Amino acid sequence: MRLLRLGVHPLKSGAVRSVASASVEPRGLVDDRSWMVVDGSGRLVSSREVHALLTVVADTPSTDPTVRRALRLRAPDLDDLDLDVPTGDALPVRLFSLDLTAVPIPDADAWLAKALGRDDVRLVWCHEPHRRRLQPGYSSERDHTAFADSFPVTVASLASLRQLDDWIVEEALERGEEPPGPLAIDRFRPNLVVDGDEPFAEDRWTSLTVGEVRFRVAKPVGRCVVTTIDLDTLTTGKEPVRTLARRRLVGGKTLFAVHVVPETTGRVSVGDEVVAR
């Protein structure tokens, strides 16, 4: 197998940033999901509820070498916003059912309000990713990450996506509907995109070596309604969850891609050999 794409999401639920190479730390890819938007109560605001987040482009020096400060935000019809790492006190935030702490960045509040059309949003930074523990039963005490949903790194297979696209077309024709075009892999928000194995071979993987970096496979990814948002139009449809619910429903979850945890550190690059066991 080969690594065909690398994606970093500096802002949780923001636009994916495709890179040629990335450093892997115990917490995942450098800068991945280090920033998050929360509401006035400190609760995560995601693209599930605010689709416009998907149009916010967040870059760091690791995703764009022209960025000179910690973070640059871009959105349609707004001037770029350049930000430094905040130095204030940490506040409580809530990521789904997890109670965490993060440092707010007040300089971003007005910009985000215009970008998202809400005045109750604020940007926070994960200052202590080493304190974020992962899901019990699938991790060790040393495993950690920033604001990722569950685990540090997500790996998706293009072979599996091609099979899913075929299923969607097949079922559309059975219903007498016009078949949709192929899905964008970015709907699944992967960090690593691989190809060269059979569809859904990842169900059997226990470890993955990309270049010289070794990962432990933790569990399959249960997909949510974010995957049904068209990244071009920001409209919501029924696919791929409808087809996954028929073909890949396990334990009440629709599965696509796998969560992995870094066991070594280093640099991975598009084109690297990928060895699964």
TrEMBL record:
Residue ranges annotated for the MOSC domain, each copy included: 121-277
InterPro entries on file: MoCF_Sase_C, MOCOS_middle, Pyrv_Knase-like_insert_dom_sf
PROSITE patterns associated with the record: MOSC (PS51340)
SUPFAM superfamilies (alphabetical): MOSC N-terminal domain-like, PK beta-barrel domain-like
A Pfam family reported for this protein in Swiss-Prot or TrEMBL: MOSC
Protein's UniProt name: MOSC domain-containing protein
Protein source organism: Nocardioides zeicaulis
Origin organism lineage: Bacteria, Bacillati, Actinomycetota, Actinomycetes, Propionibacteriales
